Amino acid sequence: KSTKQAEMLQQQIQLLQAQIQQLEALKMQQEKAEQKSQKQEAEVVVDASQETTENTVGANLDTYS
């Protein structure tokens, strides 16, 4: 069972790493954006993604602990 848990956690880590890469890409786009409106839109997307990620991690940790 512990092996199964380890595999599940490894999958979650890989998913989170992919999400982090997406957030970093968004952040770079945001920094390149010259217009304030574009920056504000990017910030909203990043905030929403981070919140989703945190909720996912929290739920997964609850499941495995």
TrEMBL record:
Composition-biased stretches (Polar residues): 49-65
Name of this chain's protein: FlxA-like protein
Source species: marine sediment metagenome
Region (Disordered): 31-65
Bias kind Basic and acidic residues: ranges: 31-42
